[in-house]
Write a structure and sequence with these properties.
Layout (H helix, E strand, L loop, with lengths): L5 E11 L4 E11 L5 H13 L5 E3 L11 E4 L5 E7 L4 H10 E9 L1 H17 L8 E6 L1 H8 L5 E9 L2 E5 L4 E4 L2 E4 L4
Helix pairs in contact: 1-4
């Protein structure tokens, strides 16, 4: 018998000073049985970093054809493809071919740096202009563990983005997160 997803509800208040975006989002997050609290909270963090009225969670971990989040325009074209973790080069290439922008939020203390060395070499070996729309950010274990501890079935979260950093928290705790940028998309 297959296990069902666990449903989480989050009220996310986003104040993005970099983009002048101030909005509250009522989110329903289905956590796959194999997904950890850490990964689910990173999905919420990625949502906060890229908040938009059209940004959506996808089937993500349950499918190979979709990223974890995406922003589609009103015509159905993918504007922003957002991956979490350590996607293989094929998934990154697929995102870069299908979307105007691709962002990867890598995490995992030792595995992420090894993954990046391998992926970076492959990106350089292939036609590098193919990946001009790719941004790769690294989230430290201290930050991801801190936000994982905030996971609850019903959450009220606040996120303030300024100069690429984010203050992410609930009523009891706020974590300041400064992702390390490993690759920046060319504008």
């Amino acid at each position: 018998m297959a296990l069902k997803a666990t449903i989480f509800k989050a009220e996310l208040q986003v104040s993005d000073m970099d983009r002048n975006y101030f909005q509250s989002h009522s989110l329903t997050v289905a956590r796959h049985p194999s997904e950890t609290d850490e990964r689910m909270m990173i999905r919420l963090l990625a949502f906060a970093f890229n908040a938009d009225e059209l940004l959506q969670f996808t089937k993500g971990i349950s499918t190979d054809d979709e990223p974890d989040l995406w922003l589609k325009n009103l015509h159905g074209d993918i504007e922003h493809w957002i991956e979490l973790g350590l996607p293989d080069e094929r998934r990154i290439r697929k995102g870069c071919n299908r979307a105007k922008r691709v962002t990867v939020y890598a995490y995992g203390e030792r595995s992420a740096s090894i993954w990046w060395k391998n992926i970076e070499a492959g990106l350089r070996y292939l036609n590098s202009s193919r990946f001009d729309n790719l941004t790769v950010n690294y989230l430290s274990p201290e930050d991801t563990n801190a936000i994982a501890a905030m996971a609850e079935r019903n959450m009220s979260l606040q996120a303030t983005v300024q100069e690429g950093d984010i203050w992410f928290g609930n009523e009891e705790k706020t974590q300041m997160i400064s992702p390390e940028t490993w690759k920046t998309a060319k504008d």
